[in-house]
Amino acid sequence: DTAVSQTPKYLVTQMGNDKSIKCEQNLGHDTMYWYKQDSKKFLKIMFSYNNKELIINETVPNRFSPKSPDKAHLNLHINSLELGDSAVYFCASSQDTGIQETQYFGPGTRLLVL
Amino acid sequence: AQSVTQPDIHITVSEGASLELRCNYSYGATPYLFWYVQSPGQGLQLLLKYFSGDTLVQGIKGFEAEFKRSQSSFNLRKPSVHWSDAAEYFCAMHSGGYQKVTFGIGTKLQVIP
Q: In chain B, which residues touch A (CB < 8 A)?
């Protein structure tokens, strides 16, 4: 079984559309994250949730709204998609927020906005 | 400000040759350092990590890394590279609260026969 899974794996959509990416972890972890990897492969954290509570919210446009219905899920909804949103989005999880905790990454969702 | 620098964006080595990927960090205290590998079309997989203690850490797939405080470095090494090691390698630093992670820009490793 995949530890951290994301759906869909690929997403191609038009500018202005609204889309969601789902993430699920079956590791029993308390903390989940969303990262954005741009075309230059630079990885940057977007959000972090611990026990369904938002704890990190980097400078991300408010068109991006994470939702955590339970500890095992962290979904990312994007409104009014823009060309610059094209990237690979990675979900990750860790046991808790301890600085020494290892983060486990999902396979990524490749978003292309046309 | 904290940062992670990977000076080499792209490295090519011959199969069987030794490998060293460089990583430098900037942080006011002792950081927690990680190396991840990303194979094409895949997510990131943890290779190894350093928190404290022995400055030479062993990881999976035959990789090791050495933490050198005096040089603010955490270089990744492998004595003999295999073709399957071709991937992108990311150095990362955990610092501050709530798992604030800073990634380097990555080093793409190409392995030639």
A: 32, 34, 36, 41-46, 49, 51, 88, 90, 94-101, 103, 105-106, 108
pLDDT score, position B99: 57
Residue A3 touches partner B, C-beta closer than 8 Å = no
Summarised one tens digit per residue, pLDDT across range B42-75 is 788 999 999 888 899 999 999 999 999 999 999 9
CATH number at residue A9: 2.60.40.10
* Residue B28 amino acid letter: G
Give all domains of chain B, ordered by start, each with its CATH number. Answer: 3-112 (2.60.40.10)
Distances (CA, A) of B22 to B31, B76, B88: 16, 7, 13
- Looking at the DSSP assignment, which residues form a beta bridge with residue B45? B37
Look at residues B89, B87, B102 and name the one whose alpha carbon lies nearest to residue B35: B89
At residue A110 the predicted structure's pLDDT band, cuts being 50, 70 and 90, is: very high
Q: Positive or negative CA dihedral for B63, B69, B71, B72?
A: positive
In angstroms, the separation between the Cα of residue A78 and the nearest Cα of chain B is: 21
Domain range enclosing A102: 4-113
